[in-house]
Amino acid sequence: MVNSRKLPEYIETAIIGAGPHSLTLVNHLLHKKPKLRSRVMVFDPSGEWLTQWRHQLEAQEIIHLRSPAVHHPAPNPFALRKFAETRPSELYPPYDLPGTKLFQDFCDHLIKTNGLEKLIFPAIVTKIKPLKPKNFQLQLSSGQEICTRRVVVATRADEINLPPWVKNLQPPTLVHSHQVDLRSLNLQGENILIIGGGLTSGHLALGAIAKGATVDLMSRKQLQEKLFDTDPGWLGPKYLKSFEAQPCWHERYDMIQKARNGGSLTPAVMLKLKRLTREGKLNLQENCQVTHAHHHQNQWYIKCENGQTQQYDRIWLATGSKFQAQNHHLLEDIWGQYNTPIIQGLPVLDKYLRVKGAELFIMGGLASLRLGPTARNLSGAIKASNLITEALVKPSLYLD
Hints:
By secondary structure, the protein is an alpha/beta fold. Helix content is 28%, strand content 22%. It contains eleven helices and 21 strands. Residues 14-155 form the FAD-dependent urate hydroxylase HpyO/Asp monooxygenase CreE-like FAD/NAD(P)-binding domain. This is FAD-dependent urate hydroxylase HpyO/Asp monooxygenase CreE-like FAD/NAD(P)-binding domain-containing protein. It holds the Pfam family NAD_binding_9.
């Protein structure tokens, strides 16, 4: 239900975005200092929590999360396991990976129990404008404006990666993975090319085949099989200690790239893909790239590096995303005002994830130079929430 809350002239803390990272922050913040409830407002165009996140999971028909059950928005790491006591079959081996429905129900429980739906104001923030001496002005798509002392940017800030041969997307037969909604498609008899080697490409392949298609899954390198998208050592001091001790931001960026190493498939998904390959419903094309594509009479004709031409009804690009902070429309006035260094598309933030010199915090992948390669994951959301909460509740950490 969209909140009818009136927009005030001023709010102490504005949080932009109502996804998993924002939900994690609000739960941690109000657990630490409940009286801040009246001083926080969350802005999201849907007016509800987790709208985009839910849609993406349902559109790709994802059965369970990739993160273990201790990674969730509640401050108590064991809260999800307790919630799942009567639903043990929805925790998947080997590390109690929560089922999608279980995780959604748990988040709904947190939202309802803590009255968090009342914090959301339904609006699109179009601009963050620095004001002297210390405040910010948020400009909304409705033309309204609100002044705020502190801002947390918790929106998706990545840009989709498109292969060089893609001149423009041509829905519905050439789309990026985030535009695919398996629930609405009848693919019986179609031949689909899915490009990418990450978990998204695997989910889309399984979904398309279940709906009657045959699939070619093409990856520019050998498919990798990993339970998590980074080594579990990045969740604790094993790897983070040396990362945080590294003073060179360029070196940190290289460490992040090496740790993530492109996309990977979980053992469970890989097992299913290999079975479908044996059944003749899936063709894995590894170490292969498209060099040219053209569309003629409802068919795509693809030329690969080996010179072969192949024909498809649809092409889905599961080619991931990249971070380009300098292109972030909300922050374009911020970087220049505060002279923020940007390294390979990632901003240099202070230890509490603030833009240096400003009470403006950033969560998610854009905070990777501080948080490491798990910044965009639920574990990164927890770490970011702890840091930002500390800065918001301790007066000694406020900027002068």
